[in-house]
What we know:
Structural class: alpha/beta
Number of strands: 10
Strand order of the largest sheet: 1-2-3-4-5-6-7-8-9-10
Number of helices: 14
Helix content: 25-40%
Bound molecules: pyridoxal-5'-phosphate, iron/sulfur cluster
Low-confidence stretches: 1-10
Mean pLDDT: 93
Distance between the termini: 64 Å
Order of helices and strands: HHHHHHHEEEHEHEHHEHEHEHEE
Amino acid sequence: MNLIVTPQRESVAVSRASWQALMRTAIRDSHQLRRVLDLPPPTEGELRAAASFPVLVPRTYLAKMRPGDPADPLLRQVLSDGAELVVPKGFTGDPVGDEQARRGTRLLKKYNGRALLVTTGACAVHCRYCFRRHFPYPSSRSQDGDWEDAVQELRDDDTVKEVILSGGDPLMLVDSRLETLIERLADIDHLKRLRIHSRLPVIIPQRITPSLVSLLRSTRLTCWFVIHANHPREVDDALEMAAAKLIDEGIPVLNQSVLLWGVNDDAETLAELCERLIDARIAPYYLHQLDRVAGAGHFEVPVERGLELMAVLRDRLPGYAVPQYVREIRGAAHKVPLA
Ligand SMILES: *Cc1c(COP(=O)(O)O)cnc(C)c1O
Ligand code: SF4
């Protein structure tokens, strides 16, 4: 029997592995990340930045990058950078006022009718521009007792109709824990909708398993799904297939992006991203102006530039393919459209 593993066979093995197995083989080290992409060793600053917010990249996402290109827009999102150590004026640990919106340890209530549940601090990938990179996540040690606080808050506030499962990434929870949580939420009569905010379909599409889909299908709550892709190369066949599993079962899928310098700050890239999304039946929802979180200063694109880009998108694309360009302002009653 021929035991030589060809690159093709290896990729088949990767695509069939479980999402948990793919997390276990994720890259967690700048040296290794650079080595597998044929790039020179990391700089001192890069290593220091990674010491405060570790590098984390599953191989399924790595496979979408171009080896040998230090400016690859996917790599830029995950490779630590000495520039993170420089904090421009106005960039802080809590840029969007999460602390003042906190109800208990896990619930954030900013907007009418919706509450956001921080399910876990874990993510499948560490995005360097993440606005929650300094968020004081509750310890993940305790098990289902965790939810009691938040569930009680939700039960007591009958203005809330929609719960957003966020994090971290809610799909880092195993199905059995998600199921317990969703059952408890479905028991609260005034809740109508469940929204899942997750980057996993982009990072590890294998996470969208038949059992997850049936779990989301079987709850009484109407389920909406919001993914997070920033670049057209993130919207590949694997993502399209993962999204189709949800959409074909009646779960609408939307996308939110962050406008990022050196990643998607040009009209060509954004237009292609939006087109690929609608070709995959995913609706572009928001294009976020970067939240001014300490460590992400080098990703900021001026609002004037963002407005120019939006004008091009409106000019080129069907109306439903144009996302809303928004910024989050501390204390505002909704995400604020930039126009
Ligand atoms: C962004 C956000 C929401 C959702 O806002 P939508 O405009 O409905 O997408 C809800 N709660 C919090 C705390 C948020 O930050
Ligand atoms: S997946 Fe979301 S929460 Fe996690 S690091 Fe990326 S942007 Fe932050």
